[in-house]
Amino acid sequence: MRPAALTAWWLRQTFVHWSYPTEEVQALLPAGLRVDDYHGRAWVGLAPFVMASVRLGGVAPLPRSTFPETNLRTYVRLPDGRSGLWFLSLEVTHPVMLAARALGVPYHLADLTVRVDGPLVHYAGRRRGAGASYQLTVETGPPISADEFDSWLTSRWRAFSLRAGTLWQTPVRHEPWPFARVVLVQLQQMLTSDAGLSPPATDPVVHYSPGVGPVGIGMPRPVAASVFG
Question: Which residues contact residue 221 at a Cβ distance below 8 angstroms, ignoring those fewer than 6 apart?
Fold first, then answer.
């Protein structure tokens, strides 16, 4: 990847994943992207975390450079097999991140909190304008090793977005996530229904990481038309 357009640390990261029928998630994707399934099922993840030490171009720090963010994502691939993230929504407190809307990234301003109380991590968020909300609490424990499924759910190296009929890809790089044992204590959320999904019909799969960094986010570029044949 070329020099990063933005660098940051991603801290206190929780992933809550549900499996869905592939056809239900495929209906939410643009032409050119297919569900990246795991054993025939699509996966949708709620991922709240703290963006810390955010710098533009790796040099200039943002004012208020540490702030919460939450995304709802699924996993997709191009016809040539390259996989990545497709964001169904992103909630953020810092207005500078809304600039990514220019490339179709679905950022929304929201009121978000992340609070640590011993082994408990509490997350809460509400989209401004009486929008979707969530509350999540997890109890964290000692470090654990990741297996193949853990890595599949949490490690993607590009994100896709759509703007004016053009599919864009943004590269991402970071070290592997270090995971800790985690127990889901509380979860109430409206983000999946707001995205057009049915209520989750399966128990969630939950992961917690103290974080990774530095994370490098590269310059977006359009996906070449030749990829689609």
Answer: 168, 169
